[in-house]
Amino acid sequence: MKILVLGGAGYIGSHTVYELIDAGEEVVIIDNLQTGYAKAVHPKAVFYKGDLRDREFLDSVLEKEKDIDAVIHFAANSLVGESMIKPLKYYDNNLCGTKTLLEALIAHGIDKIVFSSTAATYGEPERVPILESDRTDPTNTYGETKLSMEKMFKWVGKAHGLRYVSLRYFNACGAHKSGKIGEAHQPETHLIPLILQVPNGKREAISIFGTDYPTKDGTCVRDYIHVTDLAQAHILAVKYLMEGKESNIFNLGNGVGFTVKEVIETARKVTGLPIKAVEEDRRAGDPAVLIASSQKARDILGWKPEHDSLEEIIDSAWKWHKSHPNGYEE
Ligand code: UDP
Question: Is the dihedral of CA 140, 145, 146, 150 positive or negative?
Fold first, then answer.
């Protein structure tokens, strides 16, 4: 297959490209390198640097790269905190980018798209584990734009015969087994990379945001899922669309929740180093518990997370961060 990966230089995008190329697929990447890294681009992928909002650029790539079977779309801004301060940046990049992309795909007859969505589309859950059919009521602009992107695919799909799979990830983490690529955000806001900055000597302590949640130790519970398992789900979703199946939405998580304190304790065990933690107030907009039901992805896509132990996930992240304390920067 020939797959166009938008945002293939980002965290989850680059890991998906590595899995696609390992599986023998042909990969074309578009990334504007706003938050992605040229060093995360797989050497065997064809890479075009450019922006989804630039229709001429998209047309030039699609004219050159004929016979694209499907698109995997990761290209978006994804920081919850930033999305609350700069909402229009998120509407512009995430929604306007997707609109221009869809216009170009329709013009070039490309009708299959796998889309990177998020648990943030649910907001405060009605119940856990969360099912795909549960209420979606985002509590931040990031989740709202992702939900709007899903709806854009739905209505454009009905009008133009395009089919899509939307994958709603829970907490992506971990790094590729090769040690060549891993998580690198600027600024970093995610729990596991921030915890590992402590044993890496880059941070004195990890802050625990809130200790009065209704959970077993008072800290938030999340469903941590290895990035390679997410990557595999994208390949299965492409195959699902290639088989002619209908548009669909799937949660991707392990179905097991860990508290912030449990994640810190596991990181202490994995690194063998002390990790100082400081208890702080709650962070705005954090639901107490987010756990996925991924039964639908298991039943319909045949997906099964393989790296489902938290120790293994943190161990792979630690290998990456230890050898790349500044991410992709020298
Ligand atoms: N968290 C924390 N300290 C930090 C960063 C995050 O206690 O320095 C908590 C955060 O409140 C949430 C969990 O860790 O309950 C996971 O946060 P992250 O930002 O990694 O992912 P999110 O669940 O927001 O997508």
Answer: positive
